[in-house]
Design a protein that fits this description.
The chain folds into two domains: about 10-70, no CATH class; about 75-190, no CATH class. Helix content is about 50%, strand content about 10%. The chain is built from ten helices and four strands; from the N terminus they run H-H-H-H-H-E-E-H-H-E-E-H-H-H. It has helices at about 15-30, 30-45, 50, 55-65, 65-70, 100-115, 120-125, 150-155, 160-185, 185-190, and strands at about 85, 90-95, 130-135, 140. The chain has a four-stranded antiparallel sheet with strand order 1-2-3-4. It is elongated, with a radius of gyration of 20 Å.
């Protein structure tokens, strides 16, 4: 009996949680056939038995088609996606990074220092939030209220969206970090400010 196996062709076809599981398998097995079998099982939603019964030639062809997944992403290929849809909800990137609150920035720094891969969903839950209002190119997003539910939800975010957002933030992080201490009073530099309840901003292109 022939079984048709469909594999993703780009980062747009896999979610954050899927990618993290794949990389966990790959790292734990340190590559090799067993790691590839686990990855294929995760990506293709097929059983291990089906993979075991594949011809070596077909198996190797699948591995070749997934070379892009194990190569270092070319960051210049990823652009910031201002919006994306997930589970019927429209999410928007923080509209104006110049209006980033100290609480948001501090949490982003903390998560990034703790490991981008490990904390990717936490980072995305800060950078992307449900759009509450929009008009033309202007839009507002939910205020920043951290929760495990929101963090878990970002596991379904497409990986191309995630990479584009992280690359964008990295590009401006240094400038923000350098400017922040100069713009704060001495007391604020010593004590982290509370998170703002006002997370609605307007994006002007």
């Amino acid at each position: 009996m022939k079984v048709k196996i469909t594999i993703p062709e780009s980062y747009a076809d896999i979610t954050v949680s899927m990618y993290k599981r794949i990389m966990k398998h790959w790292r734990s097995e340190v590559g090799g056939t067993d790691a590839v079998k686990r990855v294929l099982k995760e990506l293709c939603g097929t059983s291990e038995d089906v993979i075991e019964r594949m011809y070596v030639e077909d198996f190797n062809a699948l591995v070749r088609d997934l070379t892009w997944l194990f190569a270092e992403p070319k960051l210049s290929d990823f652009q910031l996606q201002q919006h994306f849809m997930m589970d019927g909800v429209k999410y928007g990137f923080i509209p104006n990074m110049q209006n980033l609150t100290v609480g948001e920035f501090a949490d982003l720094e903390t998560y990034m220092e703790g490991g981008m891969f490990e904390n990717l969903q936490e980072v995305l839950a800060i950078l992307y939030r449900p759009v509450t209002r929009e008009k033309s190119k202007l839009y507002e997003i939910e205020s920043y209220e951290p929760s495990q539910i929101k963090t878990d939800a970002m596991g379904e975010c497409p990986m191309d969206v995630a990479i584009g957002a992280v690359v964008f933030f990295y590009r401006i992080e240094t400038a923000l970090a350098n400017a922040l201490p100069l713009s704060l009073p001495a007391t604020a530099r010593q004590t982290r400010l509370p998170k703002s309840g006002d997370g609605t901003q307007s994006y002007t292109n």
